[in-house]
Task: inverse folding
């Protein structure tokens, strides 16, 4: 990775095609004391983060991010994205989910929190649970 490029651009380049990324490069992006959060995990430390990404990427046949918008400061960034992925346990069809990453940065990323709709990512993709989730959404808006 090019150290002359701001960390936010390195982050976006890395995750643009996550399924093809070299997981050893996480050390170029994240500090040893990284705190990573998403709707189902809270991970502390670079080794745990590497283990998480290794496990998560193992079965993905495709995972890429399309960046929609961002707001950056000297030590923080908010990046709005659309994630497109395929997973064999979810029918290996392309699933698209919108989300936002919040990053806190010193020389590397110290804090990374992802916000996204778990229903759109997982629950709606499962046959029985998907029907129930969609039905509940319709009930909420009527």
Result:
């Amino acid at each position: 990775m090019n150290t002359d490029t701001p960390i936010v651009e390195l982050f976006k380049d890395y995750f643009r095609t996550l399924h093809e990324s070299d997981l050893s490069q996480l050390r170029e992006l994240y500090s040893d004391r990284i705190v990573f959060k998403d709707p189902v995990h809270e991970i502390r430390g670079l080794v745990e983060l590497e283990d998480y990404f290794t496990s998560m990427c193992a079965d993905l046949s495709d995972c890429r991010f399309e960046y929609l918008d961002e707001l950056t400061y000297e030590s923080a960034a908010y990046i709005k994205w659309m994630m497109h992925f395929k997973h064999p346990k979810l029918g290996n069809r392309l699933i698209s989910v919108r989300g936002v990453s919040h990053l806190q940065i010193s020389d590397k990323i110290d804090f990374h929190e992802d916000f996204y709709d778990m229903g759109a990512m997982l629950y709606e993709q499962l046959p029985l649970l998907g029907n129930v989730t969609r039905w509940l959404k319709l009930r909420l808006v009527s």
Summary: The mean pLDDT is 85. The chain is about 30% helix and 40% strand. The two ends are 50 Å apart (CA to CA). The chain has one domain: 7-117.
